[in-house]
Amino acid sequence: MAASYEAIPDDYLDGYAEILAEVSATGRRLTRDELRERRALGERAAQEGLALRELVRVHLAATRVLWRELPGVTGALGVRQVGLTAEGVLAAAEQAVDALAEGFERAQLLAVRRDEAARREFIDDLLHGRGDPGSLSGRAERYGLRLAHTHAVAVARAASPYDDTHALTRRMDDAMVGRFGVREVLLTTKDGRLVCIAPGHRPEVLEYFADRVRSAVDEEEHRPRIALGRPHAGPAGVVQSYEEALSALELAERALIDGVVLRAAELLVFPVLTRDRQAMADLVRSVLGPLSAARGGAGPLVRTLDVYFGSGCVAAETARRLSLSVRALTYRLERIHALTGSDPADPLQRYTLQTAVIGAQLLDWPAEEL
User: Fold this and answer.
1) Angle CA(211)–CA(228)–CA(145) in degrees, nearest 5?
2) Residue of 312, 227, 296, 299 whose CA lies nearest to 261
3) Using alpha carbons only, what angle is made at residue 231 by residues 229 and 234, rounded to the nearest 5 degrees?
4) C-alpha distances in Å from residue 134, one per residue of 129, 142, 184, 269
5) Which residues lie below 8 Å from residue 348, measured CB to CB, with a gap of 6+?
6) Exposed e or buried b for every residue in 310-322, given b needs 16+ CB within 10 A?
7) Cβ atoms of 163 and 190 closer than 8 Å
8) In which residue ranges of the chain is pLDDT below 50?
9) Where is the CdaR GGDEF-like domain positioned along the sequence (predicted)?
10) Residue 218: its pLDDT value, please?
11) What contacts 3, CB < 8 A, 6 or more positions away?
C-alpha cells in the first residue's frame, strides 16, 4: 500500500484491504466479526493515546489508495453496476470508520468513568479521614495536593444542591483554573455542596473562591453561604478544616450568626461554648430560666435579647428590627432585668446574658427541655 502514516501503526489497517475487496466483488456489508474487530481497534487506539482524527484519516486515505484496485470498480461492468459497487464500498468504509469511532469513544468513556470514580473515592476518603495517610498523600499528588503541607477548605451551600454538572460548578472550575492553575487547588462537590481545598499559606485562593461564588447569583434570596475553615497541617488537617466550615454553615442555618461569608477563625467561641454541654445547660437554666415566668413564656424575651445584642445594644435599632416602639422595648428590657436580676445595659451582666442567649440558641431552648 502506497500511503503510510507514522502516527498510526500499520497493523491498524490489517484486513481492511481484504474487506474492501470482498465488498467490491460481492456487494456485501461488513460482518459482525469485522465490525467487532474495528471496534476493538478503536478501543486499543484510545488506550494507546492515538488520535481518533488520525485513525479516521488513515482509513479514508487507504480507501482512496485502494479505490482503483478494487475489482468491482475496475472490472468491465456497466456504468450502473459500477455505481452500485462504488456505493457499496463507500458504505463499507463508513461502517468501518463508524465502528472504529464507536470503540474509541467507548474506551474514552470507560476511562473517564474510572477516573471519576477514583477521584470521588479519593475526595470521600480525604474529607472523611479514611484510609492510610501515606496512601492518601500519594493519591493526593495526582490531583496537585501535597498533604504534608497545610490546607484550608471552603464550603458553599445554597438552597438547590450542587453537583459536578451544575452550571456554577463548571463556571467556578474554569475561574479557579484560569486564576490559579490546575495544581494545588482542588474544586469538587460533596453532599450537594461546592468544596474548594487550597494551600493554607495562600488565603487569597479561598477568598477568591468565596467572592466568585457570592457574586455568581444575583438574587439575594438564592445567594449561597460560604464558610472558610482554618488552615491545618496534614491529611487530618483537611478533615478538620472541612468540619469547621460545615459547623459554620450549621450555625448560620440555625440563625445563630449572619453573613454570606463565614470564617471559622472568627467563630471560635462557639466550639468553646458547646464543649461542655452540661455546663452550658446549667448556665441557660440559671440565667434565663426565670424568663419562663413571663407572660408568653421565655421565647419572646430571649429573642429580644438576641436582637438587642446583635444591634450593638442600640435601643432604636433593636426596636426597629423587632417592629416595636422604643418604649415597648424599654419595658421588655426592664422586665428581663426584673426576672433575671441581670441588667442588659451593664457591661459585665450583659456578657453573662449574651453568653446564656448563645447557649440557649445552641441548645434550642426554650423549645427543647434542658
Assistant:
1) 95
2) 227
3) 120
4) 12, 14, 18, 34
5) none
6) ebeeebeebbeeb
7) no
8) 1-6, 76-82, 220-221
9) 129-251
10) 59
11) 58, 61, 62, 64, 65
Contact 147, 234 (CB under 8 A): yes
The 8-class DSSP code of residue 363 comes to: T
Tell me the backbone φ, ψ of residue 283, rounded to 5 degrees.
Answer: -65, -45
Task: Say what the pLDDT of residue 222 is.
Answer: 61
Rounded to whole angstroms, the Cα distance separating 132 from 242 reads: 19
Q: In a 3-state reduction of DSSP, which class is residue 223?
A: coil
* Cα-to-chain-centroid distance, residue 315: 43
227 DSSP β-pair partners:
155, 262
What sign does the CA torsion over 245, 247, 250, 254 have?
negative
Query: Domains in the chain and their CATH numbers?
Result: 10-111 (no CATH), 136-266 (3.30.70), 271-362 (1.10.10.2840)
Round to whole Å and give the CA distance between 224 and 231.
22
pLDDT at 127: 92
Provide the pLDDT for residue 258. Answer: 74
Identity of the amino acid at 12: Y
Residues in the chain: 370
Q: What is the DSSP letter of 157?
A: E
Pairwise CA distance, residues 89 & 101, whole Å: 18
Q: Model confidence over 109-148: pLDDT tens digits?
A: 888 788 888 888 999 999 988 877 778 888 888 888 888 8
Single-letter code of the amino acid located at 301: L
Residue with cell 454541654: 277
Query: For strand 225-228 and strand 261-263, is the pairing parallel, antiparallel, or unpaired?
Result: parallel
Element (H, E) at 335: helix 326-340
- Torsion-angle region of residue 144: left (phi > 0), alpha (psi -120 to 50) or beta? left
Handedness of CA 278, 282, 285, 288 (dihedral sign): negative
C-alpha cell at 115: 477516573
**Parallel, antiparallel or unpaired: strands 193-199 and 186-190:** antiparallel
Residue 152 is classified by DSSP as E
Asked if residue 30 lies in contact with residue 92, where contact means CB atoms within 8 angstroms, the answer is yes
Q: Residue 288 to residues 164, 251, 318, 365: CA-CA distances in angstroms?
A: 46, 21, 20, 10
- Distance from C-alpha of 193 to C-alpha of 246, rounded to nearest angstrom: 10
Which CA distances in Å does 116 have to 26, 100, 120, 123?
46, 24, 6, 10
- Extract the C-alpha cell encoding 120: 470521588
